[in-house]
Design brief:
mainly alpha
C-alpha cells in the first residue's frame, strides 16, 4: 500500500486507536454474510494494518535511540568517576 492513498487524519491517531478501528472493521466483516460487498472494508483494513505497522516500527526505533542515548550517558558518567 502506498502512503499517498491513505487518509491524512490517520497520522493523528495512536497505535491503540488505529487498532481499535481495525478491530471494529474485523467485527463488521465477521458479521457480513455476503463478502463481495465488503471490498472497501478489506481495503480499509489493509491500510490501517500498514499504518499501524509503520507507527509501531517508528516507536520501536525511537525507544531504541532513547535507550542508546541513556546508555552512552551512563557510560560517560562512569568513565568520569573512574
Amino acid at each position: 500500500m502506498k502512503d499517498k492513498i491513505l487518509p491524512l487524519d490517520y497520522d493523528q491517531y495512536s497505535v491503540e486507536e488505529l487498532t481499535e478501528k481495525a478491530n471494529k472493521i474485523i467485527e463488521s466483516l465477521e458479521k457480513e454474510n455476503d463478502l463481495t460487498n465488503s471490498v472497501e472494508s478489506y481495503q480499509e483494513l489493509l491500510k490501517l494494518n500498514n499504518i499501524i505497522e509503520k507507527k509501531f516500527h517508528k516507536n520501536l526505533r525511537s525507544i531504541g535511540e532513547e535507550t542508546n542515548k541513556k546508555i552512552k550517558d551512563i557510560t560517560k558518567k562512569n568513565e568520569k568517576t573512574a
